[in-house]
Write a structure and sequence with these properties.
Blueprint: H1 3-22, E1 28-34, E2 42-47, H2 58-69, E3 75-79, H3 91-102, E4 107-110, H4 118-121, H5 130-138, E5 142-143, E6 147-151, E7 154-158, H6 169-172, E8 182-185, E9 202-205, E10 233-237, E11 240-244, E12 261-267
Parallel strand pairs: 1-12, 2-3, 3-4, 4-5, 7-8, 8-9, 9-11
Antiparallel strand pairs: 2-12, 6-7, 10-11
Helix pairs in contact: 2-3
Length: 268
């Protein structure tokens, strides 16, 4: 082996170790200011894509939760994919993390494509979303499954996952006043098209993992969305705003140039 090839081998091994053992645990706490007219200032902690059954356990993920809670949010919004597989996951560990959130501030949640429904059932997962909804509720989390809730001067609207076969925007918005400032919880940002005719100010999503394993300077074509313009961060869209978090978990315990994210949004 030449010196050059030895160096290349060592560099590749070091990068692989970084992507496997360091970056998935290197949680980034981000702060984003979002302008929503007509509401008093408030802080939202947005966490998504925990994926507790696929590479990272509750003990690995807890530092990320605690970093977000240390920001003292007024509300916590969870936008799905609590597990990768709906069978055989760490039920007690996930329940502990969810209770950690619910005991800190009013916590609202929607489900993702891995949490039950038509999409995951094709891979042997649970076609019913009821078990995951019951787990969340038992932790003190309010599940907005095509439903809405009012928190002070802000309306929160939650829809079922875009791929689950249960998404029903009409039901979710049935009791929402059109003039009320509203934040939508929707796991998959591609779901925005089905929400287009309704009145809302901000949509919170996950699902993309920000690309998860990225090549710097290139758009990750493998991100699981049709509209790859919106992968991570805050974006304007048709007079409204989208915020997509990179997610807390790291399926297969891998991250490359895309740190797991704990998102704090300051609204007002």
């Amino acid at each position: 082996m030449t010196r050059r090839s030895l160096f290349a081998t060592l560099a590749s091994a070091a990068l692989a170790a970084w992507f496997r053992f360091v970056e998935p645990n290197w949680f980034e706490l981000t702060h984003t200011r979002v302008r929503i007219p007509g509401i008093r200032p408030k802080r939202i902690l947005h966490i998504s894509d925990i994926h507790i059954s696929d590479g990272m356990g509750a003990a690995d993920l807890e530092p990320g939760f605690r970093a977000g809670l240390a920001a003292q949010p007024d509300l916590i919004c969870l936008t799905g994919d609590y597990v990768s597989y709906t069978r055989g996951f760490d039920y007690i560990g996930l329940l502990r993390l969810l209770r950690l959130a619910a005991d800190s501030a009013p916590t609202y949640a929607v489900l993702g494509n891995h949490d039950g429904g038509a999409w995951i059932s094709h891979s042997g997962g649970n076609r019913s979303t009821e078990p995951m909804r019951e787990l969340l509720a038992s932790a003190g989390v309010r599940v907005l499954h095509n439903d809405a809730a009012v928190e002070g001067d802000l309306t929160l609207v939650g829809v079922a996952d875009f791929w689950s076969g249960e998404m029903d925007p009409e039901r979710a918005f049935a009791k929402v006043t059109a003039s009320a400032p509203a934040v939508v919880l929707c796991h998959n940002p591609d779901g925005k098209q089905r929400l287009e005719k309704h009145s809302w100010n901000l949509m919170l999503s996950g699902h993309t993992h920000g690309g998860q394993a990225r090549i710097p300077g290139l758009t990750p074509l493998w991100a699981p969305v049709t509209d790859k313009r919106f992968l991570a961060g805050l974006y304007p869209w048709q007079g409204r705003q989208l915020f997509i978090t990179r997610g807390l978990g790291s399926p297969k315990h891998v991250r490359a140039f895309c740190r797991p994210e704990v998102s704090v949004l300051d609204l007002g």
